[in-house]
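Margin note from the TA: students keep mixing up input and output lines. Inputs are the sequences; the output is the structure of the whole complex. Example:
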Amino acid sequence: MDEEILQEFLAESMENLSQLDNEIVILEKRPDDDDLIASIFRTIHTIKGTCGFIGLTGLGSVAHATENVLGRMRDHELRVTPTSISLILEGVDEIKELLHGLETTGQEPVHDNSQLIARLDELMQSADGDAGDVPAEISEAPVEATPVAELITSPAVEDSKPVAAPTNMPEEAADPSKKSISDLSIRVNVDVLDSLMNLVGELVLTRNQLVQMVRGDDESIFAAPILHLNRVTTDLQEGVMKTRMQPIGNAWGKLPRLVRDLAQQTGKLIELDMRGAETELDRTVLDAIKDPLTHMVRNSADHGLESTADRRAAGKPETGLVRLNAFHEGGHVIICVDDDGAGINAERVRQKAVENGILTDATAAGMSEKDLVNLVFAPGFSTAKEISSVSGRGVGMDVVKTQIERIGGTVDLTSRRGIGTEVRIKIPLTLAIISALVVESGGYSFAIPQLTIVELVRVAAEDRHKIETINRNEVYRLRDRLLPLIHLDRELELDDEHAGEERDVNIVVVQAGDEQFGLIVSEVFDTEEIVVKPVGHLLKDIAIYQGTTILGDGRVIMILDVAGIAAQFDGGAIATETECQRGDADHELAGNTTTMLVFDAGGESTMAVPLSLVSRLEEFPTETIERTGERMVVQYRDNLLPLLPIDPTSSTDANDQIQPVVVFSEGDRSMGLVVKEILDIREEPLVIRMPSSRPGVLGTAIINNKATDVIDAQYYVEMADPDWFQKKSQSADERVLVIDDSVFFRQLVTTTLETAGYQVRVCNSAVDAVEAIENGEHFDLIISDIEMPMMDGYEFAQWYEQRCDDTRAPLIALTSLSGADLESRAQQAGFARCLTKLNTQQFLSCVQELCHQRGRQGASA
Amino acid sequence: MSQSATLTAPSGRADSINDQLDYLNQFVSFSVDGQLLGVPVNSVQEVLNPQSITRTPKAKPEIAGLLNLRGQIVTAIDLRKRLKLPALKGDQQSMNVVVRFNDESYSLLVDEVGEVINVSGETLQPPPRNLDAHWKPITSGVYRLQHRLIVIINVTNLLDF
């Protein structure tokens, strides 16, 4: 049996038994105290139960017989007499002896207790006579007793060795140097430890303050005692921390068994490799990750690993490997669960996500494989083709993610087809004292956890030229590699107080995951022991902070999360920053980004279109493009796809064998836009900086630091399909109010609606819309963005609902936000629908439906 | 209240004891941009003079930063920003009304802190219809005092942004 469980059992039982003697003695004096009998019964019952669970048959049988007698007493079927008490005490003594034996040898001592048990049973059965008045209850007892009869007899039969063991006892007990477990451990309420921890945190802060006061003043009479206080505080702090820390292995105990059972059920060969079991974690954190860990290992073994036959076919070793690895990294604990299975089929995830309505086709098309794979964390998502008894029923990874996030951790999944899947959990030490470097940037102090710091580099002012740039991004040659540099003040959008000054450059080289980068700060101060306090609710979504702390002088400073900062600049934040520096206060910059498809339109111009409007990218061999009169078409899926060049005057390059085409779809119609080359997909804030008068071009935006024309997809669809305009007449002249602060989307939505024949009134803010409505303007439908300055969509909807009761037009929320509660929140605010920007077809049908409904209502009223 | 019956003290004193027990009718009043606002007295932890506040770059603009309250970290909310009012002029400094919400402390930065106002006998009026839309969710209602109105803040909604 597991050593740890055994120790726990011993500690608990000893503790309970020490009280029991007392209780039984009191019982003798107060034989009618029902509560007391019940309490004694429970204690023995617990021991019996645990014995059965961990297979201690001898001990279990004694406990069971004692429990039976107590049970009868509890039910008033047996009187509490000194004789019966003595017998019970005998039973309890024997239980204690067995426990002591178990503790010293680690084995259950072999005693012949058949006599004792027989006497206890006799006493119990003697109750039957007295108990004529409660016959119903008796029938229960024997039923319960039957299985135990086997327990009682079997050890008695096996144990041919007679009452030899108890003689060992005095010898062992006589050894005073050996403390028993009950002496060594006490149970302490976690709350007590928590409050101790808080107090120590306060003490550390005060200590820091005192140390700072006497620093540099060796003459001070306080210097020596403070030094001593310093040492004691450090020891105390470590001690208290230790009381709460447990090795992560404690949460792994059950996994080998789980994997073994799984292997049998699924017929796979699975090896479980666990490393870093000694990595210590705060107890509360440990409790919180137990279940998610179990789930992840189960998932890897069940879904991750292929069947033995599939593995053989793929040329892999038959035995699949599930690996668990835990280690500390920069104030966090990282736990990796990886397998060498088939990896996640991103294509299947995509299909599934679209089927389940988690994604639209268009969004799915624009997602990277990594993003797609991470969709397995979406609520209600399960890729297993059938529900298996092993890995749950559609609840799974989303629960893992929520549980980890609840304790402030993150989950990241990487999958490589045919090679395996890795899930990486990063759990912050929400409660810890860490060593951190205090730096200054933009006039503010920040702490950087020492564990993430690799080295400090100082570049003298005259050596500044050694910092080189690649497309405005700074890098530094550090020995044999190129270190990317980030100005912390720019990253934090603070003012650079030393702008333009020729001064030394302080670079803090930090490690984030596998990468290193340099943070440029203006000052580097001391390393300090700081108490990590969790960031408040309103700040916890900011990825660049790991926590806050109070310095020795009482100042609050933020602790930076290096990995969070790294993640920010990975997403092209450096390019965004340069845009910010241009002094453009347009708030759209700060907010949403749009994924844009950037292409070379020929004629040396770069153009872009929001990827969400693109339905497919195709490459057709040049010879398949046919001409019918003026128009170019290509046979595509048993249909003809009309093709249009961006610039009608330019002809397709005859030298190219392959013609890239961007396909747009509208209803059941599609058209292909002929482009020279697909260049890039960029995710950036989309701001139309210069409206265009050219047909088909919405305006010019800066994408990837280049002026880029953003095309109006609608225009080209119309061009390709001359019938389009006839549709206009079909629609009634409903008035639609469009509220959006983004010029781009305003134009896009307006064009779409006007093309479909609606009358459109545009407002660039909810405040304007309020004014328009207050002025008595009437609308049949209102389409509003959510995220807007001054008054957001929710506020607008609430205002509107309260203002207009009878004449209310339905509201549609049109947003590029996403999130599970978005829809419900929008509905609560009074929106009839909530759509994402911008699936034109879905959008138009929704508009049509709501206008139609309203039309009918109006007629009936 | 039952207490007044058991007390032999003059009725005036009994009333003042009742007043003290009457938390539900008491509000800590403060002003922001000339408007009198109030929060329930039992949600207020304490009131502080201007404090040094650590800025939290990249946080939402309504978050003024963090302050150290005897070792406890408190998130400061700029009430003027939250209510979309102009910033405080000149070198005037904000007072702190520290409220407790969901086991965290938040400091509401206000212009001036007034007295605790007892509104017993008055009924809370719903926010008037013409109140600005962004004020509505964070307003529980309005009490009519003798000379002015006090707008009661819904702390839950105020801190949800």
